[in-house]
Write a structure and sequence with these properties.
two-stranded antiparallel sheet, mainly alpha, two-stranded antiparallel ribbon, about 425 residues, 10 strands
Length: about 425
Amino acid sequence: MDNELLKHKYIEDLERNFLPFWEKSVDDTFGGVYTCYTNSGDDLISDRKYIWSQGRFLWLGCKLLQLKEQGIIQLSEKWSHITDDTYSFLKNHALMRNHHVVFAVERNGEKIKDQMDTSIFADCFYVLGCNAYANLNNKVETFEHVMLIYHTIKERISKNEFQSDPYPIPDGYLSHSIPMMLINVAQELYETAKKLNAKEQFTLLSDIDTFFHDILYLQNSNRIIEMYSGDSSTLLERHMNPGHTVECAWFILHSLLYIELENKEKHIKNVERIVKNAITVGWDEKNGGIFRFVDKEGGRPQGKLIGTPFEELILESWDTKLWWPHSEALYSTLLLYSLTNEQTWIEKYKKVETYVFNTFPNENEEIGEWIQIRDRTGRPINQIVALPVKDPFHIIRAYIKIIELLEGSENFATRIT
């Protein structure tokens, strides 16, 4: 595999098809970004701003600026202003008096009565974005601010005093989404703490270790259980989310950079088994691509129902093909190849790559981006996934990670092992 050629492919696609779309989506008046587009990206249907997406967008902008500083990508000068304005918008409008983060606001930042403290994930993405801003600009005060929010997140989760819209966790269940989210947040915070020589870096290393083992607790054989209650007959416990698995896989692998373990190669092998199973069981052999949800044995999810809206969602949308699992699979397969040098991971990468670039890119090059939501056959469908938005995050983050990996994949593998 020609790393340099592949790197330039992703850089060119990023610069030509993604950055122009999101640059024109910036709100130059109030700050932040418009995300409530149709699936095709040709029509803005609302100017509400979901904090989940705003925090993600800030993270992207900061990482893109760092790639520009390293001379890796070309980026308009306006991105410095974009990140400044997005950070200011978040800091001024996303917080409640108790340091919780609201779910959504109006274009001008006005809070919405029924969109307040409804999702701990909004808090997490607020932290990710503002932490990236602190890292980019070496802002100690901003880092201390996000650590305050981070501590409230951990406290609320420890007391089970939080909501998790748009996917409420049923009583009596442990959700993979919680330690998965937290381990990524802690990793990002640690990098900033280390850069700023902040004392919190030692606590964050301990947190990474804790969340790492929380995820391993949810592993059963070669899969991660998405919703664990101890009743293996339920649909919630039987179902798999292949996209979550391949995304969490690289969170786990990145954790090996930070925590002390006797046999890191064993953990890499474990991640290999999990990802192989997720892609094998989750792959649509007839039409190609990765299903949104599957049963642990493959195919349509099955099992005893307990009467939750999430179960309805699983059964109604299990065979759709979404942008984000495929984005995550592109990076995870390349990362595993860089760590193992096993040819099977190049083969899996190429299988995913072929499907992705034959399916998701918008044929209308004047609009660009991807048409992110597809049916089983790959045809575009107008369907809300999580939030009523066009997601700026997963694709560009995967591209950033791939570009960074291909800049020095041998060094990354050496640092882990």
